[in-house]
Write a structure and sequence with these properties.
Elements lengths: L2 H9 L28 H6 L14 E7 L5 E7 L1 H5 L3 E5 L9 E2 L6 E2 L5 E2 L5 E7 L2 H10 L1 E6 L21 E9 L8 E9 L11 E6 L5 E5 L4 H12 L6 E5 L12 H14 L3 E4 L2 H7 L6 E9 L5 E13 L5 H10 L9 E10 L13 H19 L3 H8 L19 H10 L29 E17 L6 E8 L2 E6 L8 H13 L4 E3 L16 H28 L7 E4 L2 E4 L5 E3 H5 L4 E7 L16 E16 L5 E11 L6 H20 L28 E8 L15 H19 L5 E2 L11
Helix pairs in contact: 5-6, 8-9, 9-16, 12-13, 15-16
């Protein structure tokens, strides 16, 4: 992108979008078609405007000084040398924050800049604006901070007895779930202790942003936000401004599987722009990304399952401890999901779960796909494997004896009213043909664990088959007000959708086009770019935008449809319900009326605005009971792995997936989302673990943090998609991205257990856990 083009993008945002991509077949149209992604042409051609591409006249560059210690008292901060460096225009610390000194997504407990104490490695202390990025970085490093280093609390179990790390204390939330008879016991009992590591969302695109001061004393932030209105309100509070004087413009989001941007660098950008009166840009290094944004909660889980002699579950007892890191963020919500789904998609008459989220001096944890549900899935599925082994029952058969269905009750007391075809999903993957065994020949050695040079001897390779069954909740929970607003405008045969739902790769902009095409019969549909001048649509997570924002678009489109059809119906003396729109033509049931949408419009502009708000939920009470969730989605995965039992290397041969999707709205897009979720789960199972010894982030880069690549991705076969519509959801569709992330790590671990006979009680799986010594 040229500088001029980027400058236009940064300073004069417009509501323009790419036109629908051409299809080699007859134009795919409406819901159920595999319509191409709105942004695909621009991304493949390299013209898509990411935040890192932005530019503005008179641009300054930002640098941020971050703490090298996980825990220390700040004795003094001296910015003199930094301010005196040539090219430096401003230096800001906690003393320069005019409004709220703290912020946070769940609760406001995280300082914009550390003032008296630093609580995690990488916490921001000061920010610099300079006329060159190298100058900004050097000036940030020139800020002299005198620390009194303190012992970090990095073990979440020790956080209960440690001195308070924060004015709000170390305990963020405790949920004691009580369901059924505490005296209930089974003939068969199995115990387990499990640990889940710290997974980073690892956004491939650089985290970047641009702040531009406004003539009215406000500021505009150009960032890849996934929740622009929440970010605007946070920024306004920090800057001491009214929300209408802060505008967040969403630039091209290079994919998001979590909270995409770290407020720890967004907020200093605006402060620097307001202080200097100049646009200020920051493109975070990979190290800054690892240090700044939130990660998946490392979790310690203790389980005890009781079953009768036939393997039917009688009671589940569990203790779940989430390491929230230094600040609360979304840990309360993650804990609610972990506790609520601690028994999995199984019918359990008695459950007693203790859940805690605590502060430590580790990096902050927060929203990552399937938070809470992924950790407990790995544990309860390991318990089901132990139970099957102790009973001498096939692992799939044991699961089938216990799966829940529609009408069953969750341990929270909530009745499952949505479709829950868990038995159908598990049966589909169990009965799917297994992949062929590898051949013992030199030309086929590449299929062995570790790649071409991996396995020492083919005879050391063992194959295992395992299962995972998972569940997630959709939308927000525990009384969250889920609402989205959308406007549909039609003029000259072209429809435009205005909705602040951010396209993060989940396909909302494509879905919005399909909804309007389906409802109005108009092929050319544009989706406007997002900023906070539009009404809020909420965060892009847990399938929200498919349900809530898609529902708002559908309602607005139906209102426009009524405006279009009612005059025609009145003219011909019939009900508007007797008219239909197909492929841009309006026809009546009897064939008397036949005209095009363009002719019926007659040059008029029609528009409507609508909201979608799902039915309310309620917080969990003091015993973990309550109707906390709007809807649930389920998935079953069978994993086939090859394990070198001498080296401990693991190759995932195949993952067979069956998923409860409600309704397929875009087949190609849906399958891609499932495959991506499965692959992310494989990373959590085998390679992804952000190591933080004594609170220090080790190897914060993509060399030290091992993401699965295309060569690591296994064969993924989607063997069944169950389309049983959820009647309370718009279109009947369910969220599809998170539940395979939740389920695939458990399935891979189950398969490694089957291959090695080892317990495999930690994710990611360490090589030594897969070594068989005798």
């Amino acid at each position: 992108m040229s500088n001029d083009a980027a400058a236009a993008t940064a300073t004069t945002p417009t509501s323009t979008t790419a036109k629908p991509a051409a299809s080699p077949e007859a134009s795919p149209h409406g819901l159920g078609a595999s319509l191409a992604s709105t942004h695909a042409p621009a991304k493949t051609e390299g013209t898509f405007p990411y935040a890192a591409d932005l530019w503005a006249e008179g641009l300054l560059w930002a640098g941020i000084l971050r703490s090298p210690h996980p825990h220390a008292r700040i004795v003094s901060i001296d910015t003199t040398h930094a301010r005196e460096m040539p090219g430096v225009r401003a230096v800001v610390t906690h003393e320069d924050v005019p409004g709220a000194a703290v912020h946070g997504r769940g609760s406001a407990d995280r300082p914009v800049f550390a003032s008296e104490v630093v609580r995690h490695h990488g916490e921001p202390i000061a920010a610099v604006a300079a006329d060159h990025p190298d100058t900004a970085r050097m000036a940030a490093a020139a800020v002299i901070v005198e620390y009194e280093v303190l012992d970090p609390v990095t073990d979440p179990e020790k956080a209960f007895e440690a001195e308070p790390l924060h004015p709000d204390g170390n305990l963020i939330r405790h949920i004691p779930l009580r369901h059924g008879d505490p005296e209930a016991a089974g003939e068969i009992v199995v115990d387990g202790l499990y640990r889940i590591g710290r997974q980073d969302p690892a956004p491939i695109g650089a985290e970047a942003g641009l702040a531009v001061p406004r003539p009215d004393g406000g500021v505009e932030l150009y960032v890849a936000s996934t929740d622009p209105h929440a970010d605007r309100d946070t920024a306004a509070a920090v800057y001491g401004l009214e929300p209408d004087r802060v505008k967040v413009v969403v630039t091209g989001v290079p994919g998001a599987t979590a909270d995409r941007e770290d407020p720890g660098f967004q907020l200093p950008l605006g402060l620097l722009a307001l202080k200097t009166g100049c646009p200020v840009k920051l493109t975070a290094t990979r190290e800054e990304s690892f240090l700044g944004h939130a990660h998946r909660h490392p979790t310690l889980l203790r389980y005890r399952h009781h079953a009768d002699a036939e393997g039917r579950l009688v009671k589940v007892e569990a203790q779940i401890l989430l390491d929230a890191g230094a600040y609360a963020d979304t840990s309360s919500q993650a804990l609610a999901a972990a506790v609520s789904f601690a028994c999995g998609p199984y019918a359990v008459p008695n459950a007693f779960i203790e859940g805690w989220a605590v502060r430590t001096n580790n990096p902050p944890s927060g929203h990552v796909r399937g938070e809470g549900a992924m950790q407990v899935c790995a544990a309860y599925e390991a318990q089901m494997d132990k139970l099957a082994k102790k009973l001498g029952v096939d692992p799939a058969e044991l699961r089938l004896r216990n799966v829940m269905g529609t009408g069953d009750v969750l341990p929270t007391g909530q009745t499952v009213t949505c479709p829950a075809p868990v038995a159908e999903l598990l049966t589909a993957v169990r009965d799917s043909p297994l992949p062929p065994l590898p051949k013992d020949s030199p030309e086929d050695e590449w299929v062995l664990p570790g790649g071409p040079e991996g396995a020492g001897e083919p005879g050391a390779v063992r194959r295992g088959v395992g299962y995972g069954v998972g569940m997630v909740h959709m939308l927000g929970a525990e009384g969250a007000d889920e609402v989205s607003t959308a406007t549909v405008r039609v003029q000259d045969g072209v429809a435009t959708v205005l909705c602040a739902a951010v396209e993060t790769g989940q396909g909302f902009s494509t879905l919005a086009r399909q909804i309007v095409q389906e409802t109005l019969g108009i092929d050319e549909v544009h989706v406007a770019s997002v900023d906070t001048d539009q009404p809020p649509a909420g965060p892009g997570c847990r399938g929200r935008h498919t349900w809530v924002s898609g529902g708002a678009v559908e309602r607005a489109a139906k209102m426009v449809r009524t405006q279009l059809l009612q005059p025609l119906a009145h003219k011909f003396g019939m009900s508007a319900e007797l008219l239909q729109i197909t492929d841009g033509k309006i026809t009546s049931y009897d064939g008397v009326l036949s005209t095009t949408v363009t002719e019926a419009m007659d040059g008029k502009e029609l528009w409507a605005t609508a909201q979608c708000r799902p039915h309310p939920t309620e917080p969990l009470d003091d015993t973990g009971q309550g109707d906390a969730f709007v809807g649930l989605a389920f998935c079953a995965i069978r994993a086939v792995v090859d394990v070198d039992i001498e080296l401990g290397s693991v190759r995932v041969v195949e993952l067979a997936v069956a998923q409860d999707v409600g309704r397929v709205l875009n087949p190609a897009q849906l399958r891609t989302r499932i495959e991506a979720g499965v692959t992310q789960g494989v990373g959590a199972a085998l390679t992804e673990n952000l190591r933080t010894p004594r609170g220090l982030v080790r190897h914060p880069d993509l060399t030290g943090y091992a993401l699965p690549t295309a060569l690591d991705a296994p064969d993924i076969r989607i063997v069944k998609l169950v389309e049983e519509r959820d009647v309370v959801a718009p279109f009947g569709a369910k969220s599809v991205s998170a539940v395979p992330v939740v389920t695939s790590p458990a399935a891979v671990a189950s398969a490694v257990r089957a291959a090695t006979g080892r317990p495999v009680n930690r994710l990611p799986i360490r090589p030594q856990a897969a070594v068989v010594t005798s």
